[in-house]
Amino acid sequence: MFMSSKTFTLRRRYFEHGTFGELVDNSGNRLAVTVECPWLNNQPGKSCIPEGTYTLAPHNSPSKGICLAISGPSLGVTVNGPSLRTHCLIHVANKASELEGCIAPGERFGVVSNEWAVLNSRNTLDKVLAAVGLEATLVVRGQ
Question: DUF5675 domain: which residues (predicted)?
């Protein structure tokens, strides 16, 4: 797999109601906090993606607009398939219940409609898109 000179690390904590993390750059500076679905054994559309190394690239989703596509063929994650997981994206959302295996960035953690969430997702996604540029490496791991 191609390793970009830009590497971001997503450090996660797992809970039954969602996976919450912190996205940091090469220097350890926090770029965003994140929310994902809980770990459900990599079930498509229900689980967060497995820990490992991925490529991030800008993507124009028909339903989510400009976002980032996550690709890790050796982990079964590609943009268009064939693979176990397709269209795993970093896109705007606030709560795990709004996601189907994607990652939503936010400025800080909070509560939306009595559910743990990330806040200010739109502006934070714009910041993440600018930091990633044309391509970057994403390392996903537990804390």
Answer: 10-132
